[in-house]
Amino acid sequence: MCINESQKQHKWYYNLKYLVVGLLFGVLFVKAEVVSWFRIQEMFRLRSFHMYGIIGSAVAVGMISVWIIKRFGIHTISGEKITFADKKFSQGQIYGGLVFGLGWGLTGACPGPLFAQIGMGATAIVVTLLSAITGTWVYGRFREQLPH
């Protein structure tokens, strides 16, 4: 039976696990220099392999994980079968990728490490965070008129 987790009532401490994982993830990003503006600029200028190595490692881990899930029929903790739906290509993915890449290159930040960058003292990234939130709202508002 599928249960919508957001509809369940939990104790106040139930979501602390997400806080702990988020903090650990942020510390890992900072220590690995994934959130470093200079590392990101090195990547876009093709001057360092550091970021390509991290991104490539993540892609490899993801590919191996999906293969293992499919090969051994792994289920979720609640016992549900994990399925993968085929994705249909659309031109909107090209436009979205270009806008995302342009924003990443200009700001030195993608959505994942924004909070880690703010947490390590790069307060100018608040502008990037507010811009990302605004862009998400604009997309939601005009989604039906955009190419998909």
From TrEMBL:
Official protein name in the record: YeeE/YedE thiosulfate transporter family protein
Pfam family, one: Sulf_transp
Keyword Transmembrane helix carried by entry: yes
Chain segments annotated as transmembrane: 12-30, 50-69, 89-106, 118-139
Keywords for this protein: Membrane, Transmembrane, Transmembrane helix
Naturally occurring in which organism (per UniProt): Dyadobacter pollutisoli
